[in-house]
Amino acid sequence: MKLALICFSVLSLSSWFGVQEKPPLECRGKPLPITILPGPKMTAIAVPLRFGGERPPPLPWVNSFPSETPFRLVIRNRDEFSDFWKGLTAKVPPGQWAPSLPEIDFSKEMIVVAAMGERPSSGYSIMIDGVCEVDGHVEVFISSVEGGCGGLQLAVVTAPADAVRIPKTDLPIVFRETQVPCDYWFKQSQGRKQELKTWND
Asked: What global pTM score does this model have?
């Protein structure tokens, strides 16, 4: 199945991610782990997840996807992942280095993607920050900063995105969307020791 068809099938279900909600205080079922995609070692501050645990902010290369429109995507096998990765690296100029397709064990894991589409400045962001199995489906929670943040912003077109691994499941995936203020993740981190960590080690 080609990426365009996968994207269309998810985008056509706009009710999955069209309604903004208040972030729930707790998972109503079983919290599931979130794991970043394999990649080079990088240092970043840990961001707390909604239902316990932590992760880094979205890291290259999956922190941006060249798409004019937003989409949500569930990747369950290597062919779908290959199509996604080709789209991710499509704008890398010929002859320049591009990351190879990471190895994912799709017998145990799958990938969920959230992309904002093009935005007019650097003041936008999106992050998958919670996953919960409840009532016969899996809820994937996405927090996004829309409308730009205060302070210095670069007047360049951006396309924020995020992609993570979650445990493999055949249950339906439902995306839960929340718009948050610029300082949301900072406030979530208050009271925690702020330190840089190495990821993908």
From this structure: 0.84
